[in-house]
């Protein structure tokens, strides 16, 4: 059980780090207009509407990479229940992705691409990590 918890924590931390790293690359794709405050909800809506496709793709890529890494690392470190541990870590990143979609005010098309692909990345990471797991032990 200890390996499951440690694996889950490490997976989530690495996943969040990768998402944050991708967000730090944003100025290379999108220069923030002066006078807009990203912490103000009204300014956030303006910023999101001005984001070019390359910046939106970077956000989606960060979510995919973070969810995959979280589920894969958690499942790989975990002793038993690799698939379940991977999903639990990835689920935290999925929830963060949905929260980002709501808080930032992205349009529906963005969410229809971002959220399902992030779920798929979580599934894939957990599946690869658990490839040697016995589903039913006798």
- Rounded Rg: 17 Å
User: How many helices?
Assistant: 5
Arithmetic mean of pLDDT: 87
Strand content: under 5%
| Largest sheet composition | none
Which percent bin holds the helix content?
over 70%
What is the overall silhouette?
Answer: elongated
Q: What pattern of helices and strands is seen along the backbone?
A: HHHHH
Distance between the termini: 20 Å
- Helix vs. strand class: mainly alpha
Low-confidence stretches: 134-138
The domain count comes to: 1
**Total strand segments:** 0
Task: Write a structural description.
This protein has 138 residues and is mostly helical. The protein has one domain. Helices cover 75% and strands 0% of the residues. The chain contains five helices and no strands. The chain has helices at residues 2-24, 41-50, 53-77, 82-104, 108-129. α3 packs parallel to α5.
Features:
138 residues; mainly alpha; 5 helices; 0% strand
Task: Furnish the topology, listing elements before pairings.
Elements: H1 2-24, H2 41-50, H3 53-77, H4 82-104, H5 108-129
């Amino acid at each position: 059980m200890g390996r499951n918890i440690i694996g889950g924590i490490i997976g989530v931390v690495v996943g969040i780090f990768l998402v944050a790293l991708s967000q730090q690359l944003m100025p290379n794709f999108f220069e923030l207009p002066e006078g807009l405050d990203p912490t103000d909800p009204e300014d956030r809506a303006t910023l999101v509407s001005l984001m070019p496709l390359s910046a939106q793709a970077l956000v989606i890529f960060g979510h995919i990479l973070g969810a995959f890494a979280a589920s894969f690392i958690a499942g790989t470190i975990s002793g038993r229940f690799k698939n379940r541990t991977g999903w639990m870590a990835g689920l935290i990143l999925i929830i963060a992705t949905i929260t980002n979609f709501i808080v930032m005010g992205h349009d529906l098309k963005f969410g229809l691409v971002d959220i399902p692909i992030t779920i798929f990345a979580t599934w894939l990471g957990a599946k690869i990590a658990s490839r040697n797991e016995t589903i039913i032990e006798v």
